Amino acid sequence: MIMYISLIGGLVILILAGDLLVRGSISIAERVGIPKIVIGLTIVSFGTSAPELMVSLKSAFHGNDGIAVGNVVGSNITNVLLVLGIPSFIRATSCSDRGTGGSAIFMVFVTVIFAYFLLQGRLEHFHGFILLSLLGCFLAWTVYETRTQKKAGLCSGCDADEMVEGVPKHLGVALVFTIIGMIGLPLGGFLTVLGGEQIARAWHVSEAAIGITVIALGTSLPELATTLVAAMRNHSAIALGNVIGSNIFNILAIMGLTTAIIPLNVHPQIMSFDVWVMLGTALLIIPTALFCFKIGKKTGLAFVISYFAFVGLVLAPGT
Questions:
Q1: Can you tell me the distance from the alpha carbon of 282 to that of 43, in angstroms, rounded to the nearest whole number?
Q2: How far apart are CA 198 and CA 7, in angstroms?
Q3: Most buried pick, 11, 127, 148, 208, via CB within 10 A?
């Protein structure tokens, strides 16, 4: 029972701490004059991926390589199949924002590169530096594109205050939010990894399997919540962009930063099966992003069923 409390409690702390850190950081960044476009592309993106980052870092330092790598691979799979699948029951997801297609192609590109690195069996320091370099290129390109759209009056939802609600107006509150977030993230990461490691032993499955399924699902909850709200507000393009951006950030920032600090071994299960599922799900976004193919209820249901089938295969005995 304690291991489940540790896992669930850790995930809850991660999500709440990440949210507080984002809101506090946005308020402070605005006060020191950082452009809202940059805030939206960095702090907001970091916020929804903060749980994955903390779990991967904690896992790496604790020697739980399976959880560190599996968490990112599983989160990217979850983002496509579940985070895009469930909101389609509320409203069909389609494209409308300029630049979504280019971002989707870049997401597939970095997914292919990441998959190639994974198939080497070990992620080294230089892999991390390559991923971080690509992150810098992506952020620079996105800032340029966003500024261009804003000048042309084509950008909706570019500002941080349009993407995140409840940003504190008072500096004292912002500092408290930021401090609580900075304390809560490592605490939540420690509890999540500890619970995941114990559950893997109790269920007699690999740590990679727990990272890819249970922990990945938990750390993807911020993306799911954001996408559900976007669907209810008829902002389907934001939902799609959120998933694309999160998947890019998971690979380039989280795996880039983690492996730049400490090399990671890749579990054989990830190399033989999960990496191919990750590649396949990345390609599923292309029809919507490039050709405006709508993800309606039937497609969404197929996504959700595919997700649970994937989880069943990963957790099946003998895998």
A1: 24
A2: 9
A3: 208
Crossing angle of helices 100-118/65-78, nearest 10°? 150
**Cβ-based neighbours of 103, under 8 Å, separated by 6 or more:** 142, 241, 244, 245, 248, 289
Give the model confidence (pLDDT) of 93-129 as tens digits. Answer: 776 555 678 888 999 999 999 999 999 999 999 999 9
For 231-282, the pLDDT digits (tens) are: 777 766 667 877 888 899 999 999 999 999 999 999 999 999 999 999 999 9
In angstroms, rounded to a whole number, what is the distance separating the alpha carbons of residues 168 and 154? 28
What structural domains does the chain harbor? 2-315 (1.20.1420.30)
- Residue-level length of the chain: 319
Residue 111: exposure state from Cβ atoms within 10 A (0-12, 13-18, ≥19): buried
Helices (H) and strands (E) in the chain, counts: 17, 2
Burial group, residue 12, by CB count within 10 angstroms (0-12, 13-18, 19+): middle
Q: Which of 317, 318, 304 is nearest to 77 (CA)?
A: 304
Query: Which residue, among 115, 66, 50, 58, has the nearest Cα to 214 in the 3D structure?
Result: 66
**Which letter, b or e, does each residue of 161-196 get, where b requires 16 or more Cβ atoms within 10 Å of its Cβ?**
eebbeebbeeeeebeebbeebeebbebbbbbbbbbb
> Alpha-carbon distance 118 to 141, whole Å?
26
H/E segment holding residue 24: helix 2-31
116: Cα separation from own chain's centroid: 20
Beta-carbon contacts of 268 under 8 Å, excluding residues fewer than 6 positions away, are none
Q: What is the pTM of this model?
A: 0.86
Cβ(205)–Cβ(213) below 8 Å:
no
Are 70 and 267 in contact, with CB atoms under 8 Å apart?
yes
Taking the C-alpha atoms of residue 79 and residue 154, their distance in angstroms, rounded to an integer, is 27
